[in-house]
Amino acid sequence: MYKFDIDSFRRNFLTQHDRPDLPFGQERPPVFTSAAAAQDKVNASRIWRRWGDTFIAWQYGEWVDEASAVHRTAFLGDWSAISKVILRGKDATRFLMHIGVADLTRFPVGRLRHFVMTDASGKVATEGVLGRIAEDEYYYTAGGGEWIVYQAAQGDWDVSAQLVTPDWFIYELQGPGSLDILERAMGTRLRELEFNHWCAGRIAGADVRILRTGISGELGYEIHGSTLHGADVWETILEAGLPAGMEPLGMRCQVLSHIEAGIATAGFDYMPASIGGPGGSNISVSGGGQRILGTYRFNGVEDLFRSPFELNWCSPKVVARCDFIGAEALRAELDAGGPARRLVGLVWDTRDVMDVYASLFEDGEIAPQMDMPRRYAAEYLAVHADGALAGCATSRVYSPKLRRMISLAAIDREAAAPGTDVEVLWGTSPDNQRIVRASTIELPFKPDNRRTDVKAL
C-alpha cells in the first residue's frame, strides 16, 4: 500500500491552480497525479507532461502499441487533471436545467449523461459528464467546472457547487477487454451495469465509483475515487490488465481515440465561450499557456466558438421545450435553417502526407513536419473547397487502426457532404506551407461500440 499525503497534495494543487503568478518550481511546486508512484514503475520514457495543473506520464512504451490497445484489448489512462464538481441542494435539478441544454426531469439516481452548457449567444461554454448521485446531489466532471460554480453564485438558488478536483482521481479503462479486466480487479461481476449508468464498488480495499462511459467509441469504463488511494487502485487495475495485453496510456496518445470516435475536445477542436470571462477556461490564445497554431486566420477567439448543433451535441426537441441560458439563440439558429457549419471527419491523402515526410530526405526546403501521432497543441488549419475558404481542420492525428492521417473539421454545410474533396493548408509559417488533399466523411470514423450488450459476453 502506498503512502500518500492528501493534505499536502491538495495544498500544492490549489497553489498551482490559484497562483499561476508564483515562480514555478520554487513557490509553486509541480503537482504529479496521485498515481505517480505506481505509474513511475512502468513509465519507460521517464517523461512527464503537464495537463492543466497536474503532471501526467507522457508515454509508457511504444506509442503505436498504446494507440492500438483500445481496439485490441484495452488501455488504462489517467484523466485526473479534469475538473470535478459536486452539486447539492433542493434546487440542484432546477439549477442544472437553467444552465444546461438538457431535460433532467427523467434523469434518475444512478444515471449519467453528456451535459452541455451554453452562454447567452448559444455557444458551448463547457461540457462534460453529469451523474446523479442522490435526489438532490450531482457529480460533474469536465475541463471547465468553474463555469458551474460561477453560475451557482449568480442566482438565488438553494444549491452549493464545490470544486473537488484535487480530491478525486479519474481513470479511463477503455476497449473490448475492459470489462473482464475491471471485474478481475474488483473481484465481482459488472454485467448488469448498462451504458451511461454508474455503481459503487471497491478496488484495492478503497471505495470507488464505476461509470460505464467514455469517449473512445469502444466499450469502456471510468473509475473514480479518492486521491488518497489513487496509486493503489491504479496498480491493482494495471496488474489485472497487463496479462491480458492491456496498455497504460500516456498523454501522447490520449486524445487519439476521441478523434476516431468523432468527439470534439475543448481547446483542441473549439474554444469554450467561457474563455477569459468569470468562471471561464484558463486556455490562452497568445503569450503563456496554450497557444493556437496553424494556418486558419481568425479575427478573434470568438471565431473558434461553436454551438452544440455544430458539434452534433444538441437535440432540437430539447431546445424547443426547455428554457436555459442560450436557448433563444439556439432557437434562432434552428429558425435560420440550422448551423452554418458542421463537424465532419477528414481523411487526408496518403501520398500528400508521405510527401511531407519525404522532404526530410530530398533536396529543397523541408516541409513543416507532422508530429506523430499528433501535435499536442491547439492547431487550426485552413480548409478550402472549390478554391474558397470553407472552414478549419483540427486534431490532425495518425490512426494506426485506420492506417491514415485523419482530423476533424468544422466546415460550411455546403462542403460537408460525405465524399467532398477539400484541401487542407498545412504548416505554420506563411513562407513554408503545403496543400494536403482530403475528403470528408460522416463521423465517427469507426463503428460506435460504447453500447455493447455485455450481458451476452
Automatic annotation (TrEMBL):
Domain Aminomethyltransferase C-terminal: residue ranges:
378-424
InterPro entries for the chain: GcvT/YgfZ/DmdA, GcvT/YgfZ_C, GcvT_C, GCVT_N, TrmE/GcvT-like
PANTHER family, per the entry: AMINOMETHYLTRANSFERASE (PTHR43757), AMINOMETHYLTRANSFERASE, MITOCHONDRIAL (PTHR43757:SF2)
> Which residue spans adopt a coiled-coil conformation according to this UniProt entry?
none
Domain GCVT N-terminal per the UniProt entry, residue ranges: 57-270
**Name under which the protein is recorded:** Aminomethyl transferase family protein
Q: Which organism is it from?
A: Novosphingobium endophyticum
Extract the Gene3D superfamilies matched here. Answer: Probable tRNA modification gtpase trme, domain 1
Q: Where does substrate bind?
A: E222
